[in-house]
Amino acid sequence: MRINKYISLSGFASRRAADELVADGRVQVNGETISDLGHQVDETKDQVTVDGKLLKLPTNKKTKVIMLHKPAGCVCTKDDPQGRRTVYDYLPPGYHNFKYVGRLDLQSRGLLLFTDDGELLYRLTHPSFEVPRSYYVWTTRPLSESAAQRLVDGVDIRDPEDPDAQEEIAFATDVYLENGFAELVLIEGKNREIRRMMRAVGYEIRDLKRVSYCQIQLGDLPAGEFRELTANEMNKLRQAVHL
Predict the structure, then answer these.
(1) Any idea which residues carry the catalytic annotation?
(2) N or C: which end of the chain has fewer CB within 10 A?
(3) Tens digits of residue pLDDT in 97-130
(4) How far apart, in whole angstroms, are the C-alpha atoms of residue 19 and residue 11?
């Protein structure tokens, strides 16, 4: 088995990230650092470590993905130095090794996916796969059609108070004006992207909720609750990212 596949199946990193780990000299096989990206390992006998941490392949691994309806007021992290509630506080210990797919900031709520598959995680989050995410956005005043068009055309979301900030363009692939809120569809997940986009067109967000990710719908799952994805939903994910 190729070394990057081994690392990916262990859940440590995606295959591309695994190649970077090898190139950086952080991967050892049976105690020896390797540099060959095509290095083959015997998954039944070889011991693979990254920075000294022993990697293990799951027995009869079957990729799992769960969805959580993240409430506002909890953070996307394992351990918060400020002692705030985290998304993992809503999951039983058996899921604490799962990694979340794309962050939601402290006050945002809605659909948050978790997976134990490093390669799937990479494909769901890397911009090159253009995975769509949909958000409902409530603003302090109704979003105008002209502002919606500006969001589709692209707006500069750099910090206006930072004189050294470089131009950073973000755009929505679609904006739908609904009764009392707007639905935005994005294919990238930059830090606080929607909040920065709205600020760029002169609007303040009251509430922000992610309702779908890669065709997976939040539906009526209550806030703070989670469930595993169905077989049909898993097939949708794999097809969307060519797995």
Answers:
(1) 105
(2) C
(3) 999 998 999 999 999 999 998 889 989 998 889 9
(4) 14
